[in-house]
Queue: 2 jobs
Job 1
Amino acid sequence: MDKLIITGGVRLDGEIRVSGAKNSALPILAATLLSDTPVTVCNLPHLHDITTMFELFGCMGIDLLVDEKMNVEVHASTIKHLRAPYELVKTMRASILVLGPILARHGRAEVSLPGGCAIGSRPVDLHIRGLQQMGADVIVEDGYIKAVVNGRLKGTKISMDTVTVTGTENILMAATLAEGETIIENAAREPEVVDLAECLITMGAKISGHGTGTIRIQGVKKLKGCSYTVLPDRIEAGTYLIATAATQGRIRLKDVQPDIMDAILVKLREAGATIEWGKDWIELNMHGQKPKAVDLKTAPFPAMPTDIQAQFTALNAIAEGTGHVTETIFENRFMHIQEMKRMGADVTIEGNTVIVRGVNKLKAAPVMATDLRASASLVIAGLVADGNTEIERIYHIDRGYECIEEKLRQLGANIQRIAG
Ligand code: UD1
């Protein structure tokens, strides 16, 4: 298994491009299954999760044309098998996103029930319940969600008990081809849900209210092909900004969308960063100063994303003062804490809050990545630690960060991948 070796102590300084958003690209790829004619998706990030989705499409017999820029043309009408197998779903939970589109388009679908997850139990009951409310018969048998509907799904009012991103996306996609109007209440307002809705609208769907808690969808009989460009990844952008702040450096991000990053930018200013931004760029400068610790609490958009809390915890670990980081979305998202402690971080966990007392320096140690964002936080810890930090199990990082070592090297970091 590959490892990363980071020699800490370098102030990051430079310019990088932000990749397309993984969490937009995955539902948009799933949405292509709703169309009879080819859909082209552009600005896809080069990530393991994206190739897993291609593999899943391959398993279903779907023809794909991928060019050298990772634009992909999906010919969903070539689908032969309406089944997402366990072997792929277990490596990527977001495979559940094909359930709604396949069911709506073909009247039946089988998707392996995603198993446990490092950050909590992560049920999919709300996806299933929403589809049942739209008239589908859904059973869970032999580890698979098996859904069928006689004719078209029926539009209805669906009130989500919890704000769920992929749950909202699954129902939204299914509703585009349903009979009549579907209203999703307590819908997720994440920019990636909005991006999916915009793509569906370009395909001919009738949707309003996306970006608010109530989304209305008027079902249509057919969707058509289009070309759609995925929005920039706000979590990748946030991760590089935090890494730069932690190393007291300076960065310019291009191809980014600052207006969906308020919660993150506000905290970085609180940490002492000077931040300037334009339509598609952000500059952050710490002027060589140590960051100040920040308090934060994760919650659905527009609040602080759960996918960025571990990275802020790494910043707090070497900041001036004490920071409190509270996680309200997932039950077990503190796996990075034990690893950071091995590097000398002064952290305690109280319920769903981590209390981080900033120390002068972290010390390099061998550490293990446990999930995608936890591994990003260990990279940040490695960048500010004395000595060589070895991070194992970096396949987690490759699921969500395109060319992380090239991008960090472009910013001056001393980082190497050792193939294993
Ligand atoms: C998505 C993101 C992930 C992010 C998360 C929260 C993708 C591909 N992944 O994951 O990066 O961390 O949103 O912003 O977009 N829940 C239920 N029942 C359900 C569904 C969810 O109880 O049927 C609960 C979950 O356990 C969790 C909360 O709802 O506590 C939010 O999870 P959800 O928004 O569904 O996360 P994902 O969509 O899986």
Note: The longest strand covers residues 3-7.
Job 2
Amino acid sequence: MTRYIFITGGVVSSLGKGLLSASLGALLQARGYSVRLRKLDPYLNVDPGTMSPYQHGEVYVTDDGAETDLDLGHYERFTGVASRQSDNITSGRIYQQIISKERRGDYLGGTVQVIPHVTDAIKEFALADQDNIDFMLCEIGGTAGDIEAAPFMEAIRQLSIDLGRGRSIFVHLTLVPYLAAAGELKTKPTQHSVRDLRSIGIQPDILVCRSEHPIPDSERRKMSLYCNVSETAVIPALDAPSIYSVPVNYHKEGLDVEVLKAFGLAHSQVPDLHRWEDIMDRVENPEGEVTIAVVGKYTGLRDAYKSLNEALIHGGIANKVKVNIEWIESELFEQEDAITKLENVNAILVPGGFGKRGTEGKIAAVKFARERGVPYFGICLGMQMATIEAARNLAGHTEASSTEFEEHDNPVVGLITEWVSADGSIETRTEETELGGTMRLGAYTAHLKEGSKTAEIYGNTVISERHRHRYEVNVGYVEKLEKAGVLFSGMSPDGALPEIIELPDHPWFIGVQFHPELKSKPLDPHPLFASFVKAAVAQSRLV
Ligand code: GLN
């Protein structure tokens, strides 16, 4: 029997609902329960695939090729459970389904309405693919009281009735602000937010209260009284030094015990959190530090590279060092002399990206890393840039470029319109294919060259990694580039698509067409990130 935990937010956004959900998932796992996490997003985009990283942070890609909300990344990092297409739904997708059904005449002339049609579709999504797990955690995007979120709130209210007593609970995350002038914490916004929920028939079982100051018992009692929640179920959530301390902190505040109590489940056992405690120790007591430059395009907004940021931290955890990330706008390196800024870093990473702006700056950063022997990690666009740099400066192909940036008769990086997928079928795409539908998305297998650095790092010659890109390195250049010293150490199983390049004569120079950061976890750092940070540590000892 799968039990449901609905997680809502109140007062303001950005309180860390995703982190709360992910941490609660990890705590339940530490007690031996199986979990799955889901995100219900009220916005009208069908998925976040076409949204600007500035608007919505990174797009998190799943194995099955769904472009999803970045909160799914938190879920996976904290629980290790791989997210699927069926774990993220938006109002846009729900309306799209309903409207196409309506056009087909599936509603037999009936009036199509928010209740029951939209709410039924939301319920169906929440109930799908339960796989007999113990707990399904459903996070509702947005904030209680949002117009857009109303159908979702109504749907989870109905679900709690449909599921029956003891099968679901509501956890509500709010803000308890501190008024410096009054020297007091204020509970009124929380009271209002819970009143909003209760007016639509949702009574939270647990209140999680974000606060910058410890919450005195008197204020806890007040919230308990006014919000109709037992006092022990008012859980304080103070700011944490690292997101990886959050599960242990929530446990100390009694969150997991309250959840089990609300379901009437036994809770006397202590969860096994030693792995999380070990991570906290590694993050809080590093034995050294390294500085890594990330030369990208959306460096102004940290969420745009969320998984990358986390994967570098995981690499630090693996090596017991603190990783300082210097985010640098690649356009900077299009100015003369600016490249000297890279002289003080221990490693350079060029992440994924789209469009021409700043690409010459990225190529300049690659050249610097290659010539100076500084560890270089190129991810997706970062691999494409490394290949173009090598084509220009090692193979003498001075015009080397990508058709993403300009028309080219013989591009080093170009649009591949046809390839054989893992099951042997032919996949095709054209330049005209709808935006959002033209990418190689999700998990693909790559075969690694025995004896290569990459095979050594993975400890394997067959790997599967997640992709999200339109263009590919042109296989027609492999021979020429290999002669110039570039090793194509990973290829698609049919040999048509280069997946990994490396420079055997360099301390650490690897470019990958996929996004390894999406699969890195604090409890299980990705081997490429662990190895890259290790190379940065070695470099730091040289200077
Ligand atoms: N813009 C490149 C492409 O579409 C790289 C994409 C990426 O880095 N994710 O192929």
Note: Residues 352-354, 380-381, 404, 468-471 surround glutamine (CB under 6 Å).
